[in-house]
Design a protein that fits this description.
Blueprint lengths: L8 H12 L8 H31 L4 H26 L1 H14 L8 H38 L25 H47 L6 H60 L4 H40 L10 H17 L15 H57 L1 H9 L1
Helix pairs in contact: 1-5, 1-6, 2-3, 2-6, 3-6, 3-7, 4-7, 5-6, 5-8, 6-7, 6-8, 7-8, 7-9, 7-10, 8-9, 8-10
Amino acid sequence: MQAAEYTDISIEWATFLMKICGVWLTENRVEKRQRNIFVVFTFIAIAYGVYVNCTDAYYSWGDLGHCIFLINNTLCILLAIFKLCVLTKRKGQFSNIILYARQNFWHLNYKNQEKILFARCRKFCKMWIITICFLTQGSLAGYAITPIMANIGKNKSDRVFAVNMWLDLPLSMTPYYEMTFTFQILCVYQIGAAYLCTDTLLCILNMYVILHFRILQHKLLSLIPIDDHTEKICYVDKHYMAVKNCIRYHQSLIGFCKMLENVYSLPILGHMVVFSLLMCFDTYEILLVNIPTVMRFIFVFHMIGSFIHIIFFTYSCHGLLEESSNVCTATYSSWWSTLPMNRVGKMLRRDMRIIMIRSLRPCCLTAGGFFPVSLETATALMGSTMSYFTLMRESSERIDEDIILLFSTNDCSLYASTTSQNRSNTFNLVSHAPNMETNLFQ
């Protein structure tokens, strides 16, 4: 299928995020050199992020709220590196996905009703990319604003970083502070891009696959013969090739979905496993921990972004399930029952039965092959998030009660020992009172 070159804001931003993480396709030596530079910087940023968060957690052990903040950061970093490693390992299949999308999806050769469906798809992709980039920007900006607000009115020797640095070096002095702070913020944004890029592109690809499944349904429904029986025979003979093209079209979409499954199955599984923990930690930090207001905004934006992320993502996967299975309904609702029972008509009926049988097994994306991802997955994840949060809250309240009980027990023991000692001193004083009286009279 020949197509004109096409791009819009959603594809441009998704491509940009993939390029700065070093996992996009290259066409010449200059782009290949740039990709290698971005790959090196991405892995440096990820290694640095894991190091500073683990070191800070080691020295801050005992501060539950701060440790949860560091664990949240570490989980996001590990999830980002896991996704990038999977895409790097399956680079060949990922290249085939992008090339297929360029040739068959990202073009302007749509006609009539297809243009309306294409406009809806493009509108949804734009809304998705703008929303997720705005929320991610709000979350990442908090890492820069929090130390800036905390450093107001402090001496140069007391300045804090975006993430604590436990090194015996004069990093708080100029110009080392400015250099270290800038490097930390660059690493934060690079990790944010690595965390976001794969899912952003996958959601856009899902929406374009959904678009083409709907176009296929429209083509099957629009092949309506005229009423005259003699012309029906001519129609069947003439348009049998169009039906075969629909079959090939359907097969190509199924093959593309299989490529998506092979590449993105493990990243989806990793995101499904980590999502509930991230949402649980965000909710805990927002509601139960006494933290600065600016840092609280980090968790608010991250929680809202994660929620919208999982809703949009599962919606696109659910649409893939639904529209691929609707091909069966569209095929059955088409013109096959009005065809004459000649040789070509029988062949068309047989081919359309094959389409319907294949559509009974819808295309889907799974989490590591364990379960298909749909909107029900989002509700299950939110339910597990609330369960984890309730468990953490009850555990935290139980720990606080134990601490209060321990202190009250220690106070009572101290009071009892003090009272006992006072009583002993009083008894000794009374027992020696006659002797004191005798000594006095003497």
